[in-house]
Recover the amino acids of this structure.
């Protein structure tokens, strides 16, 4: 039975899941102003891509995709540490997590 | 002496100029400049004498003495080379001979001046340029000398450079000369285009060939070349319309006026036309134009000279007028007359200027005729030296000026009698001018030296203001000049002015005949009834086969008689009478009955005013040429600053405009950038899909 | 090591220590001596190059070598010199020590940086002239902007930032278009051969296959950069501003060498690459050149700032240069004269800028109304200035005349479908105007009653001193150069003939082909290849040579000398 369930799931199901995750993250990134939430949203987009990669790996029956995912996770971890550090620094500067206060690039 | 020595002639003065330049550096050395300069002119004179016999015997290609190649691009080659024929030798005698005399005089005249060494450097440099000019074997080298003498003239006129009028005069001289030089340069280019060469002998030989070829028709280039070259000659030799610089050039020291602006430089134009006479003959209108301009200038300048009060200005206008005679002579194909007059004029005009300089020196810079009278007792030697010069200039019988002027007038009249009305008119103008010349010359002399003694000292602007005139310092009395180094050279000049005509006439005509200045013979005009006077020259030229051998015929034309005599003899009688008449009138009006003169002058006040102001030509040029050009300059500057630069700045603002228009997209909000990125990726993806599938 | 490579990179290498923290360089004199030594050594290298140069084959590229860069794209730094490049390199290396000699007291702050950028600039200028690879040329061409931008922007006078900005943007914009044009020719080459190459000779071959329209576009692109650099009349407005604001050293380099990059580029690229377009549009370029001569000469006349006057006179003078380049007369009189003119203008105008700089150092003003009669108070300076003014006016016997007369003769003899005598006649009026404005300046500043502005000396004194030994030593070599090139120009002219002929041969061929007889667009590309390739001109077949002046192509110095000897 689990096998049949698995059998009925095609590659596109996994890709759809990845895409949905990615889009949720994207929409969250664009619409939210809290720095931490925005950061979490980018993590969500990462995971969406990771799901797709794993799915491709299974589909092509080779390890490339999964290798990439391991890389991505590792880097994401390192980056999360840096990013949260930065967020803390930014918070200390303005005592708020609102992204709108950081708009020096305004032309 | 070996003929090769002639190559040294221009370079010795150049070396002299360099040495004088070194002398400028230390005050102690400055005194050496005068002798160096005189030597650097006198040695070439000796060389000229030494090589004369060798030089006049040169034939064919031997006449060309090349030192090295100056420029060469393809076919356009210009050598630093000299063309030595008898005309060159005549000019060299004039330049180095009279040059050394004037430089000797200047040693005394300029003594104690602040720029003593600078002055002699200019003089030596001038002799370099002038000898180069008359020796050059090609047109570009002539141009080097041509501009070189212009430069020296600029530097020497501007000698008293803290006087604004001297600076202005110097500038004017250089620029007006440059206008002529442009014509000359374009003439050279066109000559090169038409003849494929700039070397004199090639050009002249080809022109002679064309003249002797009955089937040859003059091309456009042939018509234009003489007119372009003529413009250069008119600029350098101060003819209408470019004469305006010469009177102003009198702001320079007097020896410069004598050397540069009377004896040598200003005659360069006459020399050039004489040198290239076959080229001028090719164009039927060229020589009549030269003659007409010469004749009109002679009269025009002569009238102005009547009413000038500045001693040197009178002589300056007289120089313009005499140069007009020379052009008249050359234009009437009497190169002999033109060059002969150049030769004699060099003597007497140099003498006149230098004696005027002596007067000016004695009166501490006073030049106004009204401020001097009866000086004959104070400076007797100067008085009679100037008298000799005046006689020659007035054309008193058997003086030098008498012979040369008569030759010109007679030859002009002969051309006129051959059916060319223009030349008859010009001969009459020449006679009228001869009367004016005699009158204004002696007006000056009688005013200065005759009558009651009276003088006002000048304020010595003309002299550097240095107080070292010890030996003949500025006492409050006019005084005679010392014999050495001032009056002795003048005596030599005076001798030439009185006897030069008798002595050198034969030598001169022989010299002209054996040079390129020898016109292609004209005779038997009466067999051709010419409707167009201008064409007679070219037509007749093509009728004669040889040249040179028939040249005698050109000078002594036995077909024409006047009052039952040979034209030349008749002309001598007429002009001798006219000269005497002029002197007589001058004696009456300016010596014996001065009050009457003033009354007459008052009656014709307007005429006097116009003549005194030189027909307002300077004002006219200023208003019509100088001012508009300067306005144009201002206009262009504004145009440049605002229109052109404005356009550039506007173009520069375009990127900024684009920037402004897209500026709102850069909100500084992270979400905005994110959205932009997403949309961008989406569009890119869509495009890729559309392209790929 | 290849001599040219050494010559090119030596300056930049020797400049590096100036930026290191070396204590000794804190002293003005030490930096100055070091810079002087460096440029003198470079000058010696260039003299060695000139000495080893085979003048009998002056049309051949010599000392040819290349340094690899990105070979798959044909990017190499190829270099070599023919006599055109050699003379221009010599001009550069000759001017540099003089400029540094003259700058001892001109700069008072950031002295190290000043000399650093000057010497770096030398590398790029030499690089431009020795490049046989168009990318190498272009890189150096653009990189000259950077040091000069800094020299003007940091060391200039009051309005320096604006001047530096305009100078940079103006010339940079133009040369971007030039780059596009060059890339197009390179692209044609790829299409033809399938290989990327930026070697100039290869690109000549490629350019020969372009149609008339393509040539016109490429010519336009090349002109966009080079005409701005020259500068040709309507696009000259950056120059007076840059000159007035630049320090003396910058002005001298700008007038002496950098403007020549424009004319050099036109000669090296525009003429051989787009011959048909050149012949077709020469009249237009000629009109602008003549307009430039006349209009800017009149503008000179109304200037009150001495430096601005000389800056405008540069525009006027370079008009002659361009006119000569596009004359295309059968003997190449115009183009040879034009190259000569480049050298001459570098000497005489550079010297005039130095002279102006010397009085600016003394008076801190350049206003003609404020000074007069300086000949009386500083006679040595006055003598030199008058001398260089005369060289600039084109007095025969000094260098200016030779270039002027040759370019004008070239224009005068130019085939009627290219230029013609009208151009020479109108440009000739520029000779009169040059005399007017320069003598106007001399009359105001040097002659007349004495009027001296307030004097500022280095040690705070107010005593006016004439030129010192160092300043005389600065001007004397330039004066000697003017005199020697004026009296003995023939060596240079003879050596220039062969390379110039090669570069103008295609355009001359088109110009001398009657357009009614032959459709110029359909000339066999191969024919132009034969003409273009250096040294292969004798390979022309007899039937073709009837249309071309073969004798000129091959005329060697010895042959010219023979011809002279026949006289």
């Amino acid at each position: 039975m689990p096998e049949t369930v698995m059998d009925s799931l095609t590659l596109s199901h996994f890709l759809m899941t990845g895409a949905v995750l990615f889009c949720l993250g994207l929409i969250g990134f664009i619409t939210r102003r809290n720095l931490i939430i925005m950061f979490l949203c980018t993590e969500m987009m990462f995971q969406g891509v990771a799901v797709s990669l794993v799915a491709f790996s299974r589909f092509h029956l080779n390890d490339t995709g999964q290798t990439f995912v391991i890389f991505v996770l590792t880097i994401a971890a390192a980056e999360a540490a840096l990013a949260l550090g930065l967020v803390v620094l930014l918070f200390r500067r303005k005592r708020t997590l609102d992204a709108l206060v950081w708009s020096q690039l305004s032309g | 002496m070996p003929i090769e020595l002639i190559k040294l002639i221009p370079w010795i003065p150049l070396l002299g100029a360099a040495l004088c330049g070194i002398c400028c550096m230390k005050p102690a050395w400055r005194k050496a400049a005068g002798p160096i300069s005189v030597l650097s002119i006198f040695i070439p004179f000796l060389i000229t004498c030494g090589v004369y016999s060798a030089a006049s015997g040169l034939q064919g290609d031997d006449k060309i003495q090349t030192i090295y190649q100056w420029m060469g691009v393809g076919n356009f080659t210009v050598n630093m080379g000299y063309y030595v024929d008898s005309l060159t030798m005549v000019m060299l005698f004039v330049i180095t001979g009279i040059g050394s005399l004037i430089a000797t005089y200047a040693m005394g005249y300029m003594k104690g001046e602040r720029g003593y060494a600078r002055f002699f450097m200019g003089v030596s440099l001038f002799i370099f340029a002038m000898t180069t000019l008359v020796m050059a074997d090609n047109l570009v080298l002539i141009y080097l000398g041509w501009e070189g003498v212009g430069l020296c003239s600029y530097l020497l006129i501007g000698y008293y450079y803290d006087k604004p009028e001297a600076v202005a005069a110097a500038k004017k001289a250089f620029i007006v000369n440059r206008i002529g030089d442009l014509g000359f340069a374009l003439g050279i280019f066109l000559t090169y285009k038409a003849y494929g060469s700039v070397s004199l002998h090639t050009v002249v030989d080809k022109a002679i060939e064309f003249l002797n070829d009955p089937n040859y028709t003059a091309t456009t280039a042939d018509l234009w070349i003489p007119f372009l070259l003529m413009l250069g000659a008119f600029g350098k030799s101060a003819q209408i319309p470019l004469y305006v610089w010469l009177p102003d050039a009198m702001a320079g020291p007097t020896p410069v006026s004598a050397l540069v602006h009377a004896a040598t430089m200003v005659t360069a134009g006459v020399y050039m036309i004489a040198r290239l006479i076959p080229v001028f003959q090719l164009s039927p209108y060229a020589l009549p134009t030269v003659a007409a301009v010469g004749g009109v200038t002679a009269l025009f300048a002569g009238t102005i000279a009547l009413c000038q009060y500045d001693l040197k200005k009178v002589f300056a206008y007289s120089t313009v007028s005499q140069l007009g005679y020379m052009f008249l002579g050359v234009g009437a194909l009497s190169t002999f007359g033109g060059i002969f007059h150049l030769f004699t004029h060099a003597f007497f005009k140099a003498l006149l200027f230098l004696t005027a300089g002596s007067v000016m020196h004695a009166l501490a810079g006073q030049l106004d005729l009204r401020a001097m009278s009866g000086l004959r007792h104070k400076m007797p030697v100067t008085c009679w030296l100037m008298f000799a010069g005046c006689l020659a200039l007035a054309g008193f019988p058997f003086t030098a000026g008498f012979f040369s002027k008569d030759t010109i007038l007679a030859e002009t009249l002969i051309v006129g009698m051959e059916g060319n009305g223009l030349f008859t008119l010009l001969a009459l103008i020449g006679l009228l001018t001869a009367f004016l010349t005699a009158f204004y010359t002696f007006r000056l002399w009688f005013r200065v030296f005759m009558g009651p003694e009276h003088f006002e000292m000048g304020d010595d602007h003309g002299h550097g203001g240095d107080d070292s005139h010890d030996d003949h310092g500025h006492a409050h009395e006019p005084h005679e000049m010392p014999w050495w180094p001032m009056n002795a050279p003048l005596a030599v000049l005076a001798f030439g002015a009185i006897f030069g005509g008798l002595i050198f006439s034969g030598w001169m005509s022989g010299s002209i005949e054996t040079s390129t200045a020898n016109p292609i013979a004209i005779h038997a005009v009466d067999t051709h009834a010419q409707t167009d006077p201008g064409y007679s020259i070219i037509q007749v030229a093509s009728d004669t086969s040889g040249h040179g051998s028939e040249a005698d015929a050109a000078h002594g034309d036995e077909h024409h008689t006047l009052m039952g005599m040979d034209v030349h003899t008749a002309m001598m009688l007429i002009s001798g009478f006219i000269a005497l008449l002029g002197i007589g009138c001058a004696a009456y009006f300016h010596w014996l009955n001065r009050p009457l003169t003033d009354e007459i002058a008052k009656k014709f006040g307007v005429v006097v005013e116009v003549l005194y102001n030189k027909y307002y030509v300077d004002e006219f040029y200023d208003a019509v040429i100088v001012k508009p050009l300067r306005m144009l300059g201002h206009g262009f500057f504004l145009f440049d600053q605002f229109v052109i630069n404005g356009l550039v700045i506007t173009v520069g603002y375009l990127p900024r405009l684009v920037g402004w228009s897209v500026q709102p997209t850069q909100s500084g909000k992270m979400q905005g950038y994110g959205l932009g990125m997403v949309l961008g990726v989406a569009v890119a993806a869509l495009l890729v899909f559309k392209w790929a599938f | 090591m290849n001599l040219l490579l050494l010559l090119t990179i030596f300056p930049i290498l020797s400049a590096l220590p100036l930026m290191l923290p070396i204590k000794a360089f804190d002293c003005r004199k030490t930096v100055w001596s070091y810079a002087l030594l460096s440029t003198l050594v470079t000058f010696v290298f260039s003299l060695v190059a000139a000495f080893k140069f085979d003048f009998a084959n002056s049309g051949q590229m010599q000392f040819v070598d290349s340094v690899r860069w990105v070979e798959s794209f044909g990017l190499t730094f190829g270099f070599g010199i023919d006599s055109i490049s050699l003379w221009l390199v010599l001009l550069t290396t000759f001017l540099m020590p003089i400029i540094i000699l003259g700058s001892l007291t001109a700069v008072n702050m950031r002295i190290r940086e000043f000399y650093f950028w000057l010497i770096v600039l030398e590398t790029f200028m030499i690089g431009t002239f020795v490049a046989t690879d168009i990318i190498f040329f272009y890189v150096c061409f653009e990189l000259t902007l950077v040091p000069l931008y800094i020299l003007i922007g940091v060391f200039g006078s009051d309005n320096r930032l604006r001047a530096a900005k305009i100078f940079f943007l103006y010339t940079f914009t133009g040369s971007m278009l030039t780059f596009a044009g060059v890339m197009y020719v390179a692209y044609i080459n790829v299409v033809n051969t399938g290989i990327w190459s930026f070697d100039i000779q290869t690109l000549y071959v490629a350019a020969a296959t372009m149609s008339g329209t393509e040539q016109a576009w490429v010519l336009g692109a090349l002109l966009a950069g080079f005409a701005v650099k020259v500068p040709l009349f309507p696009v000259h407005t950056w120059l007076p501003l840059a000159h007035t604001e630049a320090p003396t050293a910058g002005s001298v380099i700008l007038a002496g060498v950098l403007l020549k990059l424009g004319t050099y580029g036109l000669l090296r690229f525009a003429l051989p690459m787009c011959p048909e377009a050149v012949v077709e549009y020469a009249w237009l370029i000629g009109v602008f050149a003549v307009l430039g001569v006349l209009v800017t000469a009149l503008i000179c006349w109304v200037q009150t700032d001495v430096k601005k006057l000389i800056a405008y006179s540069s525009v006027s003078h370079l008009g002659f240069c361009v006119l000569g380049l596009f004359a295309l007369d059968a003997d190449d009189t115009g183009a040879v004269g034009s190259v000569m003119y480049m050298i001459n203008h570098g000497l005489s105008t550079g010297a005039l800028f130095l002279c102006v700089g010397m009085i600016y150092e003394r008076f801190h003003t350049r206003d003609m109304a404020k000074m007069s009669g300086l000949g009386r108070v500083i006679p040595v300076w006055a003598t030199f200035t008058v001398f260089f003014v005369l060289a600039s006016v084109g007095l025969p016997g000094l260098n200016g005349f030779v270039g002027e007369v040759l370019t004008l003769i070239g224009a005068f003899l130019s085939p009627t479908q290219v230029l013609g005598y009208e151009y020479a006649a109108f440009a000739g009026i520029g000779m009169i105007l040059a005399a007017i404005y320069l003598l106007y300046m001399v009359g105001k500043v040097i002659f007349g009653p004495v009027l001296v502005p307030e004097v500022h000396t280095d040690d705070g004194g107010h005593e006016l001193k004439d030129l010192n030994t160092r300043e005389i030593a600065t001007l004397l070599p330039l004066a000697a150069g003017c005199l020697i090139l004026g009296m003995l120009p023939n060596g240079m002219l003879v050596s220039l003939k062969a390379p110039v002929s090669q570069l103008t041969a295609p355009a001359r061929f088109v110009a001398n082909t009657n357009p009614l007889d032959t459709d110029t667009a359909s000339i066999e590309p191969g024919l132009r290849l034969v003409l273009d390739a250096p040294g292969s001109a004798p390979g022309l077949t007899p039937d073709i040579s009837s249309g071309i002046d073969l004798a000129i192509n091959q005329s060697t110095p010895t042959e010219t000398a023979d011809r002279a000897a026949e006289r």
User: Anything to note?
Assistant: Chain B has two domains: 3-612, 619-692. Residues 619-692 of chain B form one domain.
